[in-house]
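Slide 14.
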Amino acid sequence: MGWHTLRRKTLTVILIVAGSAAGFGLDAIADPDGPLPPVQGHEGAELYSLAIPDEDIIGRYVDGFLAERRDWLQAVLDRSLRFRALIAGAVAERGLPRELQYLPAVESAFNERATSPRGAVGLWQLMRNTASPFGLRMDVWVDERRDPGKATDASIDKLAENHRIFGDWYLALAAYNCGVGKLSGILKRSPDSDYWGLRRKGVLPRETAAFVPQFLALSRIFSYPGRYGLRVSWDPVPGQERIPLDQCVDLRILSRAAGIPLDALASGNPELNYLVTPPGSYHYELKVPSEYRAAVEQALEGAAMPLLEFRVHVVAPGDTLSEMAQVYRVSVEMIQEFNPGLQARALRIGAKVLIPVTPSRSAG
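Slide 15: predicted structure.
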């Protein structure tokens, strides 16, 4: 009997207790040298806290992903390991179905820097109007839709809110994709339909009609990746520490002073719009790998870290780099250093230029 047949015959749906050992999928595996426990084993029932219905489209997506996009599945699974404890914890804390932790797979392929053509950003592909009510900051310095922790909290709370509105997880997921207002309008025209009924009627937006079954297919695969022939990493995810800052810090200078790879600083703080942290008034907390905390704190206290502040200058008609340098009393070369690729002869009106200034010379 092939594993495809076995998979279909052993499929079950029911695990209500979020946060149980079975509920955390990969995190439930403790001993990489021992036998695989039932949750990741190749025999027995597949257990879910979100019922996965017997809809042919889900199975077709599962088979399609495995046949045509196996390398992509493996890459997404590998990227997800950095976030699995964070997201699984947020889901379990709220008592929600554990499968929600796999939603970023269909949203962004677990890429916290992903941006859609419509302007959705981050792991959870949040739009500005969705993120704002949940307190995410989006300004010239940061876009917290790229902050894995804050974006996860906002997205999970949004999904829970959708569930309270519609009373159904499939509709809640559909609304996450197309919007509460749009889905409410569709339901008014088809008041007796559930998500699958709406889908069969062809009244859902095309993307939304694909979104929910794709999510459920990926949830099946990533809940039991070993069963589907994917490699599971046993390497522990490095811990992170938060260091409060009371000034702007250039990550490039900090990287050299603390001996920490610049990529570790940039990837650990993806919400930053520049390689510079916001002014002290933001009370920004820099995230660094635990092993570098002492070195970073020592560098921040040492003389090697120059005290700088930064301004964001919005280019207006007639502006030139030389005039900016005169106004802020810095050199053109210094402005260009903090804005790689900025060309003096090709300034775009409305572009944002990062200007370094010393506190005593702070302009405006």
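Speaker note: The CA atoms of residues 310 and 356 lie 5 Å apart.
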